[in-house]
UniProtKB/TrEMBL annotation:
Protein source organism: Candidatus Acutalibacter pullicola
Domain (Aminoglycoside phosphotransferase): residue spans on this chain: 15-189
Taxonomy of the source species: Bacteria, Bacillati, Bacillota, Clostridia, Eubacteriales
InterPro entries per the UniProt record, alphabetical: AGP_Transferase, Aminoglycoside_PTrfase, Kinase-like_dom_sf
Designated name of the protein: Phosphotransferase
Length: 250
C-alpha cells in the first residue's frame, strides 16, 4: 500500500487513497479498542445491505494501526452544495432521505445509543445536579433499536459521478437506538459548522418526512450536546454547554 495521496486529515488520524482503497492511519497512542470497534462497526453495518465502503483489512503501518476500506467514487454532499448553492435544498432533501434509509435498518450487535450517552454524560465534568437531570431525561426517552450513524453530516455522504447511487462513510460512532437522537446530533453538527440556515432546514425536512414532532427531537438536544462535548474540540465546548442548558427541564 502506498501512503502518498492524502485525501483528509482529521484529529488523530490521516486518510490516504491508494487506487481502489482508502487507508485510515491512526496516530500512535490512539485507542486500539476504538480502532477495532470501528472496523467491527463497518463489518456489521455491511450486513444490513446499505451502500458503504466495505472493510478490507485492519493492519499496522510503520507501527501505527490502520483500517483499509474500499474507495467510494464521487463527491460528498458538502462538496456538491458548495459547487451548486442553488441546488442546496435539493441536496439537503436527498441527505435526509438517505438518513431515513439508514434508520430503517437494524443492526442488533452494535452498541446501544442510550448506554453510550449515559457513559458520556458521566465523563462531561458537569455538576451532579445537571448530570442527574440529563440522566433522568435520557432514561425517560423511548427505547428504539434503529441503526444510528452517530456523525451523519454532508461530508460523510458520497454521491456517485452519475448521481444515481450513494455511499455512506465513517461508521466509528454507529450505535442502535432512537432515530431522533441521531437527528438531534446532525442538527447540532450543522450548528457547529456555522450553517444555522441548513440546520433549521434539515430539522424541518427530517420532522416532515418522518412525521416526528420537532419538540421530540429538541428534547434530545441537551443529552446529545453533553455527549458531543466529551469528544468535541475545546473551542466547541462552551457552545455545546449552552445547548446542555438551553432547554428547560420538566
Amino acid at each position: 500500500m502506498k501512503l502518498e495521496k492524502v485525501i483528509a486529515v482529521r484529529n488523530s488520524k490521516t486518510i490516504y487513497r491508494d487506487g481502489q482503497y482508502v487507508i485510515k492511519v491512526f496516530d500512535e497512542g490512539y485507542s486500539k479498542a476504538d480502532i477495532l470497534n470501528e472496523a467491527l462497526n463497518i463489518a456489521r453495518v455491511e450486513e444490513t445491505g446499505l451502500p458503504i465502503p466495505g472493510v478490507e483489512e485492519v493492519t499496522k503501518i510503520d507501527g501505527k494501526w490502520a483500517i483499509v476500506t474500499d474507495y467510494a467514487e464521487g463527491k460528498t454532499i458538502a462538496q456538491l452544495i458548495a459547487e451548486n448553492p442553488d441546488k442546496k435544498e435539493e441536496y439537503l432533501e436527498r441527505f435526509v432521505d438517505i438518513q431515513i434509509e439508514v434508520q430503517s435498518k437494524t443492526c442488533p450487535m452494535l452498541n446501544r445509543l442510550k448506554e453510550k450517552m449515559k457513559r458520556k454524560i458521566a465523563q462531561t465534568g458537569l455538576d451532579a445536579t445537571t448530570r442527574y437531570e440529563l440522566d433522568s431525561r435520557l432514561a425517560s426517552m423511548p427505547n428504539h433499536n434503529k441503526l444510528c450513524h452517530g456523525d451523519f453530516n454532508p461530508t460523510n455522504v458520497v454521491i456517485s459521478p452519475d448521481g444515481e447511487s450513494y455511499s455512506i462513510l465513517d461508521w466509528a460512532h454507529a450505535t442502535q437506538g432512537n432515530a431522533s437522537a441521531d437527528a438531534a446530533r446532525t442538527y447540532l453538527l450543522f450548528w457547529l459548522s456555522g450553517d444555522i440556515d441548513s440546520a433549521e432546514k434539515y430539522m424541518e425536512l427530517f420532522c416532515k418526512k418522518t412525521d416526528t414532532a420537532k419538540q421530540y427531537v429538541q428534547k434530545w438536544l441537551p443529552i446529545v450536546a453533553a455527549s458531543q462535548s466529551v469528544k468535541g474540540k475545546p473551542e466547541e465546548r462552551e457552545f455545546l454547554m449552552h445547548w446542555v442548558n438551553v432547554v428547560e427541564y420538566e
